[in-house]
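User: Sequence recovery, please. Input:
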């Protein structure tokens, strides 16, 4: 059964900054983060990677992608 899968993925640099700046559970092991991040680069899903987009712009990108089949998983 086909379905749509949308992956919103910030850049690795943004992930590292966010993980390190957590008030609780900060992650400072960048090697571990890079390894984990790499898992999201594998596969057939095309992510939306836009560190500067506001929520409305991201919503438009998602809606457009759903309309044109960008996120369809067969």
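Assistant: Recovered sequence (74 residues):
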């Amino acid at each position: 059964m086909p379905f749509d899968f949308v992956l919103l993925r910030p850049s690795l640099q943004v992930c590292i900054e966010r993980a390190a700046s957590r008030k609780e559970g900060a992650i400072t092991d960048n090697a571990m983060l890079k390894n984990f991040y790499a898992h999201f680069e594998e596969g057939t899903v095309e992510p939306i990677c836009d560190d500067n987009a506001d929520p409305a712009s991201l919503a438009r990108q998602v809606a457009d992608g759903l309309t044109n089949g960008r996120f369809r998983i067969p």
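The chain has one domain: 3-73.
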